[in-house]
Amino acid sequence: MDNLKKTPVEARDPQERIKDFKEVSFTYTPEQAMAEAKRCLNCKNSPCVAGCPVGVKIPEFIKLIAEGKFEDAYGKIVETNGLPAVCGRVCPQENQCEGKCIRGIKGDSIGIGALERFAADRHREMKKDSGCSEKTANSDAKKLAKVAIIGAGPAGLACASDLADFGFDVTIFEAFHIAGGVLAYGIPEFRLPKSIVADEIEAIKKKGVEIKTDYVIGRIKTIDELMESGYEAVFISTGAGLPKFMGIPGEGALGTYSANEYLTRINLMKAYREDYDTPLMKFKKVAVVGGGNVAMDAARCARRMGAETYIVYRRSEKEMPARAEEKEHAKEEGIIFKTLTNPVEILEDENKRVRAIKCVEMELSDPDESGRRRPVVKENSEFEIEVDGVIMAIGSDTNPVIGNTTEGLETNKKGCIVADENMATTRQGIFAGGDTVTGAATVILAMGAGRTAAASIKEYIEEKHKK
Question: If DSSP codes are grouped into helix, strand and coil, which group holds residue 148?
Fold first, then answer.
């Protein structure tokens, strides 16, 4: 094999995969994984590790795969990452670890994400075949102190995993009926099977972490009431699940969804399955507004639900924040990209249902504060796209319930909780991290925040007990 070329990740045929929600990409075979791992230069300064928000020991686990020590490789990964099968599938490696890979200077970077996924999937397969289970925490072991985590998404799960390893008594309070956060309600089955999410969460629970679902903090109990009941520290990781809309005329038309609602109905409420009676409008033609990963997920779901699907994005494809792989898969599946296009109105029929989306053409000028070229409207460029559904995937905000019910907890003008580099908030003993602090970002950045918070909580409680 040419050492400059990455071992390709194979995928299902596009014409077959748009008919179902089965996973699109395949895991490396052992032979493919070892071949790819042997491309690694084992750099001494390991820039790939610096590019990983949770600090996975990348050259070490890759070396173990190259040697055929697959279970040891998995063990090396989970020293710092409690959700390896998830991260191997959904992390934007091209902008993080793989983006820092020295091998990528001349040729392709190492397929770090694909190798992480291989190690995790191999472990899961071997565990299932052997009938073995993950090590269960010693229930008789003395716990150091009680810590509450609000939200069972990536940040909360990463924090809980580390705190359990440190020896704390950890309880997660989750508003939904299942744990996982965006992993459960946001990312489609064809990118991240829910059985994998469930297995990774089960491994964290076996460390002694308790997860209480259907429990809305700020409504059932406040944070102050949690602390009064014996929790010595609290980590807020409620994410950013409040959808944004454009504020254009017609957004109230029947057939307009936020991406959050559309994806939740499909993923968490299983609207794509014949044996579930989830209410969801079936469309013939859909416009998905936005250019991020959420927009790609919504568009690819709509395609699988039988709709001709458009991505409507106001900048060019080059400026789209979505992963290159997601854009490529969307195109393969027949999704039509309408770039340099911005909606200005959703048009209704006589029954107040969506009948079209009115747009204007855009052109790019000088870069704005995001570093991307600013889109400006072309004069006299209005046109219509005939659709019966519109999905808004233009970002999301944090839910205000925690900020509104916790006195002294500072939030910024966007409603995000203010926290320092150690994830400490303006209230002593209360920490926060992930999307609830940064706004909508990536799974792995949220996990990195969770790990940082766990270390800070450990230090805070140990200092408190010294006094």
Answer: strand
Phi/psi of residue 212, each to 5°? Answer: -100, 115
Rounded Cα–Cα distance for residues 200 and 88 (Å): 12
Bridge partners of 210, per DSSP, are 171
Closest CA to 406 of 152, 146, 225: 225
Nearest Cα neighbor of 237 from 456, 446, 91 is 446
Question: Hey, what domains does the chain have and what are their CATH numbers?
Answer: 14-130 (1.10.1060.10), 146-241+398-466 (3.50.50.60), 243-396 (3.50.50.60)
Q: Which residues pair with 254 in a beta bridge?
A: 353
Angle, helices 194-205/154-166, rounded to nearest 10 degrees: 30
Render the burial of 68-79: b for 16+ CB within 10 Å, e for the rest.
Answer: eebeebbebbbe
Per-residue model confidence (pLDDT) at position 141 = 57
Q: Residue 52 and residue 46: Cα distance in Å, rounded?
A: 11
Angle at 167 between CA 161 and CA 170, to 5 degrees: 55
Distances in whole angstroms, Cα of residue 96 to Cα of each of 55, 109, 196, 430, 444: 11, 11, 23, 29, 10
pLDDT at 139: 52
The CA-to-CA distance between both ends of the chain, in Å, stands at 61
pLDDT for res 142: 64
Residue whose C-alpha is closest to residue 100's, from 56, 52, 44: 52
Q: What is the DSSP letter of 351?
A: T
Tell me the residue ranges of DSSP E strands in 68-166: 146-150
Residues of the chain with pLDDT under 50: 1
Q: What is the secondary structure of 359-404 as a DSSP string? A: EEEEEEEEE-TTSSEEEEEPTT--EEE--SEEEE-S-EE--THHHH
pLDDT of residue 7: 95
Which pLDDT does position 30 carry in this prediction? 97
- Residue pair 206/170 in contact by the 8 Å Cβ criterion: no
Decide: 27 and 117 in contact? Cβ < 8 Å.
yes
Residue 286, C-beta contacts closer than 8 angstroms, at least 6 positions apart: 299, 302, 307, 308, 309, 310, 387, 388, 389, 390, 391
Candidates 302, 81, 93, 113; CA nearest to 190 is 302
Instruction: Give the 3-state secondary structure of 256-324.
Output: EEEHHHHHHHHHCCCCCCCCCCCCCCCCCEEEEECCCHHHHHHHHHHHHCCCEEEEECCCCHHHCCCCH
Strand-pair partners of 424: 431
Task: State the pLDDT at residue 326.
Answer: 96
How crowded is residue 361: how many other Cβ atoms within 10 Å of its Cβ?
Answer: 17
φ, ψ at 18 (rounded to 5°): -75, -5
Please give the pLDDT value at position 437. 96
What is the predicted pLDDT for the residue at 368? 81
